[in-house]
Write a structure and sequence with these properties.
Helices cover 33% and strands 17% of the residues. Helix 1 links the parallel strand 1 and strand 2. Helix 1 runs parallel beside helix 11 and helix 2 runs parallel beside helix 13. The chain is α+β, with helices and mostly antiparallel strands and 451 residues long. It folds into 2 domains: 281 residues, 3-Layer(bba) Sandwich (FAD/NAD(P)-binding domain); 158 residues, Elongation Factor Tu (Ef-tu), domain 3 (Beta Barrel), CATH 2.40.30.260. A 6-stranded mixed sheet has the order 6-2-1-7-17-16. Strands 10-11-12-13-9-14 form a 6-stranded antiparallel sheet. The model has no long low-confidence stretch (mean pLDDT 90). It comes from Roseisalinus antarcticus. Its cofactor is FAD. Its main location: cytoplasm.
Amino acid sequence: MTDILHIVGGGMAGSEAAWQAAQAGIRVVIHEMRPKVETFAHRTGDFAEMVCSNSFRSDDDEQNAVGLLHWEMRAAGGLLMEMADRHKLPAGGALAVDRDGFSAGVTERLLAHPLIETSAEEIAELPGEGQWIIATGPLTSGALAEAIRAETGEEALAFFDAIAPIVYADTIDMSVAWEQSRYDKGDTLEEQRAYINCPMTRDQYEAFIDALLAAPKTEFREGEMAGYFDGCLPIEVMAERGRETLRHGPMKPRGLTNAHDPDVKPHAVVQLRRDNALGTLYNIVGFQTKMKYGGQTEVFRMIPGLSEASFARLGGIHRNTFLNSPTLLDGEMRLRSRPNIRFAGQITGVEGYVESGAMGLLAGRLAAAEMQGRRLAPVPPTTAVGALVTHITGGAEAKTFQPMNVNFGLFPPVGGFKGGRKGRVERYRAYTDRAKADWRDWLGQSRQSAA
């Protein structure tokens, strides 16, 4: 047991943790309950399966915090970024992937590694010995969640995470819709036309909002509280906050010109993003929902261009459990009451594929170093990885702790730059320049400690 690192969960965090530890020379066993024990959201038993969006969001490593996180993971030899780049799809300035090719690629590389084994079983208790990383993500099994709650003595926080629907491309009416990335962003024509846009007039938008608010929704069980992460709100919850909310959110018309009627500015626009390499599937951007299935098809077919749409997957909703990490985890992501157990990924209170993978990357490296009798220096909080781990292990306010995407608000300020929108280009570049230098130094120190 002592010379093997056990990882529970083969999602983004578990897959990256296994790769990093194995690359450092540590024997790894990945315990993944799928497909033996299924979840409603997963379709396969592959590792790193993408169950929500197929996007890793912005790939801009100079002006965007998530793009910087991509850069740091690539610099650290991250498996997820390698596979994302290999299975990349046109998506303007974003990094979107063929979800099936991506997860199949991750699975193939992990299964081929001589130091990695897999075990198709459900872990229902917290282990008392050995080195473990728990990276079970938002769909932690009920038994393991109960074991965690019993150990920590605290109620796990929970919110509901909603899934956006996917449309078959050949059922989109392109005599109404058109291809264009917002502000024509992208270096190639393919990138500049990475999205399909469906325009709405004011009357169409108002009718859509009425139908959205009236549609039957998933009911919550008695005693359950529906708390949502603001970065993944169901569209009907956004609409309940005000009739104009969607038009200033996922349905904003800015930066888009209707190719069929360029002189008329749409009142609102629904965007669809390519979901696979073949271009046969498109997901409706930002349209995660808790509407019941019958209501979804009726409401979504009100969107111009989607009146005859067929859906490869309708939206859904699931419970997402996460720890109050600032009180439960130490600076090396270990459970304070059981330091042989680390946590990684969404269960720690980070949100998003990339953030989950980054916490897996760090947990895998930290566990490997500890098992080899080494200790890594703390990751500088000036880096994207460091800003995230600092936030979840003490930087956040425990009483109000909620899942968080990486953003420059988590970084120590850079002095000498103007605040507000006008100075952000230079300010963000200063953040990313500093982060890259500090991340390179940390990686260099880590390699020296392993020598």
